[in-house]
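Purpose: get a first structural picture of the assembly so the mutagenesis plan has something to point at.
Setup: two entries, given in the order below. No constraints added.
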Amino acid sequence: AQSVSQHNHHVILSEAASLELGCNYSYGGTVNLFWYVQYPGQHLQLLLKYFSGDPLVKGIKGFEAEFIKSKFSFNLRKPSVQWSDTAEYFCAVNGAGGGNKLTFGTGTQLKVEL
Amino acid sequence: ETGVTQSPTHLIKTRGQQVTLRCSSQSGHNTVSWYQQALGQGPQFIFQYYREEENGRGNFPPRFSGLQFPNYSSELNVNALELDDSALYLCASSFYGGALAFFGQGTRLTVV
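Result (structure tokens, whole complex):
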């Protein structure tokens, strides 16, 4: 069975600090990888995705993630966070061809202080 | 805005009751999945519907059931509600086999 681990449950940063959120997955096959963000009171939104090709993927709002196959990791990064990045971040995976059946991590609550 | 709408937004039910949650998928999407997000947890896959039939199920008991209609909208039904069913229920739509899912805002269910 596939699983996703997010190691940081709560992260507090000051504005302009750099961000890296860890994500490791367990799956015995080709995977699609995602980061979703949930702003307070809003629906889950896709931040970025990896299907194949360049392992460094860029998403919206200056976020990027790197797929390292040998480490089963897909860490999320942003060079300089803003107060508006305060949200909960979820890493998710599905098997290639697995359609809409996502396995999510437990999430990381990010708080950015002014 | 994703175009995926869910109703109601909030609901309070008593233990043992039954509940129906509704989801309208994004225009053109033919597959709907349902997820349960308990407090402090990530969403967990309940099941997926395609062509009005269940097409994959997570680790949820049979009292969780669903329907999909010809217009691709969907319902999630939960019978014999338990306190642990209190959660945010999310609906996601996509094209069949497509890896991109678009989520609705969710229904917050509280069981008392």
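Chain B is about 0% helix and 50% strand.
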